[in-house]
Design brief:
single chain; alpha/beta; Rossmann fold; Histone, subunit A; 3 domains; six-stranded parallel beta sheet; two-stranded parallel ribbon; 14 helices; 8 strands
Length: 348
């Protein structure tokens, strides 16, 4: 019999214990005599394989102060921010998506903001791949921690848990399905989906026309059920993920939303929407703040009504975000106005 004693001299960082397992196996395989062996293993700070990098995700509903909090954290930790906003990615949509102003972008380097055009096909899978490439080949080569900030639920989930790969769409097919939706409504599309993929039909949100159209695209294009591409297997990440949800009490959040919409209108949102009329049928423009003003430009409503609809629909979207994120943070929210010290402590 023999005994192996490991003595770890370790600096203050999170160890990748897969490395430790390998060291243990290597030690056991050695030819040891019956006397106790002392194996002193020093894990130096600069051996990147022994350091588990961290991704801190600041999530929450729209207008909850995520950007300001993320900037504060990134400055404290001397790192950079990755946007998790599915619309801020598009360079033509600056005002209506509340892209951080130049002063904020000057304080901390931001990634995945205004780096694609609305005319490009972009989806959550491409976002996942961009983020992983950015972390592994750029930020984590220079930093031990990165900050992600946003409220796009599927985008954040894809980075944390992975997403199944579906084929790129046939643009003609997509356009035809959207045209059917606009002329016939959602019911015929739902009926077709039920016929082609009853399994997905039974589980999807039948009020979400975007998801129904996406599923039909895949079914028709591949001849296979959309659900067959959805394995639901969580992908392991080689970095630690810390999720921090921030939110205000309901009345305060709603007031912030209303004031933000007024501010966007003052900054020229209507002119921005007017400049995008030719792209209105593209997926990115099916967004709160844009579709209501398209209706105004069509003469279907007056401007005051359109602005009030933007406020109402934004509040509804915020409620949906809160419901979704509740599951990922176990309902534990931080008030950014009162809990900043506690939030900073979580990030250390």
């Amino acid at each position: 019999m023999f005994a192996i004693v490991f003595v770890f001299t370790r600096p203050k960082f999170t160890t990748n214990w897969n490395i430790v397992k390998l060291l243990f196996v290597a030690a056991v395989k050695k030819k040891l005599d019956n006397s106790p062996k002392l194996i002193n293993i020093v894990l130096p700070k600069k051996i990147s394989d022994c350091i588990l990098k961290r991704l801190i995700i600041i999530l929450g509903p729209t207008a909850s102060g995520k950007t300001d909090m993320a900037v504060n954290i990134a400055q404290q930790l001397d790192t950079e921010i990755i946007s998790a906003d599915s619309r801020q990615i598009f360079k033509e949509m600056r005002i209506g998506t509340a892209v951080p102003d130049r002063e904020t972008l000057r304080k901390v380097k931001h990634h995945l903001i205004q780096n694609h055009s609305v005319t490009e096909y972009y989806n959550v899978y491409k976002y996942e791949q961009e983020v992983l490439h950015l972390l592994q080949n750029d930020i984590f080569r220079r930093k031990d921690v990165a900050v992600m900030c946003g409220g796009s639920m599927l985008y954040i989930d894809a980075v944390c848990n992975g997403i199944d790969l579906a084929p790129d769409p046939d643009e003609n097919l997509r356009a035809a399905l959207w045209q059917r939706f606009e002329t016939e409504g959602l019911e015929p599309l739902k009926s077709q989906l039920k016929l082609l993929d009853p399994a997905y039909y039974d589980t999807c949100d039948l009020h979400n026309h975007t998801r129904i159209i996406k599923a039909l695209e895949v079914c028709i294009q591949t001849g296979k059920p959309y659900s067959s591409f959805r394995t639901g297997v969580k992908k392991e990440r080689d970095f630690e993920i810390i999720k921090i949800g921030i939110n205000y009490p309901r009345e305060i959040l709603h007031d912030r939303i209303n004031r933000r919409v007024d501010m966007m209108m003052g900054e020229g949102l209507l002119d921005e929407v007017r400049s995008l009329v030719q792209y209105r049928n593209l997926m990115p423009l099916n967004t709160v703040g844009y579709k209501e003003l398209f209706d105004y430009l069509d003469g279907n409503t007056d401007l005051d009504t359109a602005v009030n609809l933007i406020k109402r629909n934004t509040r509804r979207y915020a409620k949906k975000q809160i419901t979704w994120f509740n599951k990922t943070i176990a309902g534990h929210w931080y008030n950014p106005a009162e809990d900043e010290a506690a939030i900073m402590e979580l990030c250390k």
